[in-house]
Amino acid sequence: MNITINSENLAAIVRGCILSMCDYSCMVQSMGYAPESDRTDQSVSRSSQLKEISFTINKLTAGAWMDDFEAARLIKEAIEPFASDIRESLFQSAPQGRLQESPLGTARDAPQRTPEKAPEEVSKKASKGVVSLSIVTSKGRSIAHYTLIPLAPIDPRIRQEVNQPGDPSLLPSSARSEVVRGKIALVTGGAQGFGAEIARGLAFSGAAVWIADINLSGAIRFAEKLRAETGTDAIFAVEIDVSKEESVERAFDTVARTCGGLDLVVSNAGILRAGSVLEQSAGEFRMVNDVNYIGFFNVAQHASRLLRRQWLGAPEWYTDIIQINSKSGLEGSNRNAAYAGSKFGGIGLVQSFALELVDYNIKVNAICPGNFFGGPLWSDPLNGLFVQYLHSGKVPGATTVEDVQGYYESKIPMRRGCYGPDVLKAIYYLVEQVYETGQALPVTGGQVMLN
Ligand SMILES: NC(=O)c1ccc[n+]([C@@H]2O[C@H](COP(=O)([O-])OP(=O)(O)OC[C@H]3O[C@@H](n4cnc5c(N)ncnc54)[C@H](O)[C@@H]3O)[C@@H](O)[C@H]2O)c1
């Protein structure tokens, strides 16, 4: 596949090389992308601690098209002699004390809270870079210029394949959540509900997290809250409307310029519009499918392009696309066909993407949660499903919201709804498990069982 030789496209390959050669996860931030205001910050850190590394690649020409395998080969060759130097600088910058538990930054370093910053502004202040990396031509022309921002060392067990009994990768992780420490994750629909719970869990487990949502102000507010709660800087907000291709492309471009690559994409944004097949308008049916079905395609396409470029630099590194599907993707849902159909379709996409992307070590799986009664979809006091079902008389004999909730809980063998941490455990399992792809994992308290 051909790529244009530019800073943004090469960043993912560079990040892959560093993951692979240095056993250290970092963000690879394109310097050309930094706004003027930020260059001041960079020059301060450069004079005090930034290590400058520049390498020449004769055969790369800025703006030219090139086979991406060939570009990756040239970059690998060029980076290799500097790998131990880069590794040492990243390790030397490893945070001390409390930061050994939370390696992404400190509350002290966190920028002052300001209302409603643009996503780029929020992201620029992530952390101080420790290595400045330039790729130049033999004539000294700059092709790309990056700042490497350390995240965390890589536990080598994460990327080891299980090939034989007694293989060290058969040993358990010290904690399942460790599998996301230092990784870069993006969660669509991350501003509220399940998405917010997932983003929070990932951030507390030491991942750098992008909260990508159509509700940008909600995403920015939540990112700022999480930064304060976790004391880490690497939590970013970016606008995305998953149903619009241009918007998805823009969001992934922002991620590529800011972080170089990604390790985990949680395609969670989804909507529900219940309605009878006798009455629901085609427009409403289409709207649900535009977000839940086409939206997943858009996200998976742009995510996999970026993850594949990173894989060119780190062919042994596994990455994950996880769709938050639903129990309604496994069995029909009465008067809810638009939603159930879109979720069934999502599983077809998951299986098909998995078959293709396995060649690039990109795993694609779905999680099918049961009802999240505590989230806004069900519990919103004005138009949550409990209130709607109470007023529509859907639950015979129910006179209060509690009656409606009790009715739905009684259908679950474990007698409770699903929570964010239940879904998080499934995410950690899917990330840790490098011998599975294309699966739909129920998290329903026994309500839906696979055949
Ligand atoms: N709530 C449940 O009971 C439940 C059960 C099973 C599965 N799910 C699935 O979990 C996911 C999250 O559901 P939830 O209940 O937390 O939803 P929610 O309505 O509470 O939150 C959805 C989030 O997605 C965002 N969003 C909506 N449309 C978007 C778009 N086009 N582009 C980007 N962002 C968009 C919203 O702004 C919001 O922040 C969905 O895919 C849903 O189908 C939910």
Provide the low-confidence segments as ranges.
34-48, 96-127
Q: How many domains, as an integer?
A: 2
Order of SSEs, N→C? Answer: EHEHEEHHHEEEHEHEHEHEHEHHHHE
- How much of the residues is beta strand, in percent? 15-25%
Quickly count the helices.
14
Quaternary? single chain
By CATH's scheme, which homologous superfamily of the largest domain applies? NAD(P)-binding Rossmann-like Domain
Measured distance between first and last alpha carbons: 40 Å
Supply Rg: 23 Å
Major sheet size, sense and barrel closure: 7 strands, parallel
Shape annotation:
elongated
Structure class: alpha/beta
The kinds of small molecule bound in this structure are: nicotinamide-adenine-dinucleotide
Task: Tally the beta strands.
Answer: 13
* Order of strands, widest sheet: 9-8-7-10-11-12-13
**For this structure, what is the CATH class of the largest domain?**
Alpha Beta
CATH architecture of the largest domain: 3-Layer(aba) Sandwich
Written account of the structure:
The chain has 451 residues and is of the alpha/beta class. The chain has 2 domains: 1-93 and 129-154, no CATH class; 164-371 and 412-451, 3-Layer(aba) Sandwich (Rossmann fold). It has 14 helices and 13 strands. The protein has a 7-stranded parallel sheet with strand order 9-8-7-10-11-12-13, sandwiched between helices. Strands 2-6-5-3 form a 4-stranded mixed sheet. It has a two-stranded antiparallel sheet with strand order 1-4. Strand 8 (208-213), helix 7 (216-230) and strand 9 form a beta-alpha-beta unit. Helix 8 packs parallel to helix 9 (282-313) and helix 9 runs parallel beside helix 10. The site of nicotinamide-adenine-dinucleotide (NAD) has 29 residues, from helix 6, helix 9 and helix 11.
